[in-house]
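BUG: 3D viewer hangs when loading the predicted structure for this chain

Environment: internal workstation, default settings.
Expected: structure renders.
Actual: progress bar stalls at 90%.

Input used:
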Amino acid sequence: MERKNIWTTYTEADLAALESLCGTYRDFLDHGKTERECVSRTEELARKNGYRRIEEIRSAGETLKPGMKVYALNRRKAAALFQIGKRPLTEGMRILGAHIDSPRLDLKQNPLYEDSQMAYLDTHYYGGVKKYQWVTIPLALHGVVAKKDGSVIPVTIGDRADDPVLCVTDLLIHLASEQMEKKARVVIEGENLDVLIGSRPVKKTASGEATEESETAAEDKEKENASVREGILRILKDAYQMEEEDFLSAELEVVPAMNARDCGLDRSMIAAYGQDDRVCAYTSLAALLDTPVQEYTSCALLVDKEEIGSVGATGMHSRFFENTVAELLELSGVSGTDLALRRTLSSSRMLSSDVSAAYDPLYASAFEKKNSAFFGRGLVFNKYTGARGKSGSNDADAEYMAWIRRTMDDADVAWQTAELGKIDLGGGGTIAYISAVYGMDVIDSGVAVLSMHAPMEITSKADIYEAKKGYEAFLRAEE
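Structure tokens produced before the viewer hung:
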């Protein structure tokens, strides 16, 4: 059942639509390197398309009607968008669920230190990473600083053309004989993923102000009073009104300092950070925004914390989605909300929109070829994920898989099926098994990715295009 490469079937109109979608997708990636930035961009696009916050509807005393567009935010790190359908909510929804967090380096709460007149930020890696991939590449700092007065200051350093970049250093090859004997998982230790941020000492004057160190003989005697750390704190205070203690209430993420780029001489691919899972998040969002009102309520759910188990108040294990649907029912005038909520969720259908591993011929031994996803062959469906004996998996039933087949084929969507590599080599999970607890039909679907979880991941433009088509087909399916 080998699938054909879809590139050879595209018309000029298809190619134009494909490039337009991929252009807006690259822009989304460049403006969404953290989950907070993704939510901000999502809200901006939603409001441009007529979506209103649930709180606005409630405050205005309005009742939800078919065609109305609403959204909810969770701590500005997760979002749920709904277009109310013609049928009652209790008959179910069509849900596209993706995550917007990605592997990265998080700053510890007390990160700033100096050693040998070099200043560093101490980090704790987030999600599944190959630690050696994060050394000697240009890095940026993104996030927020929450002040005690309640203000929240956004921080972005390293992405603009005139910005400095940060980096994690590595041992030079000339002295690395012992390092080269280590296994890949320990060749770079987690505690050594500290980010170099400065080397220019300043000294305190009599007035207490920091000044650049002079090289005169007289001031050389005072070098012990010079501090790179003090200079960094001054820069942070000038730029962000930030004191050192403000690190205690900051969420600052170290991410690759690179923009999304076309990849390949034929420009058939996209290379960028964070495509797991923002490629599915964006195509889900774009599909919802481009879909008119349908029989069933349409939903795009973008959540946080999937890379560390979907935990916490902003992960899929939280009650954010459940609570938001309860709000929708109340605003729709439905009585007996608890039972209605259960009926709504159990009657719904969902695509857990998450990426798949693309077959890589350079590492063919890790894949079972006839059950692998390939570039250029369309949207990928994973009936189950999990590890080894399907541990941690949502295993979609045959009837739902048959409905998916019909829905995709009727809409002329290119699609394929896959597993995550050979059975005993590892595995992975998604948010699918969490949503399935409600009794709804759920299956994993997404875009195939090369170099998944690396600082730069690669996707096929054709697969991105087919993913959006497939998500639209899912939202439009009536039965």
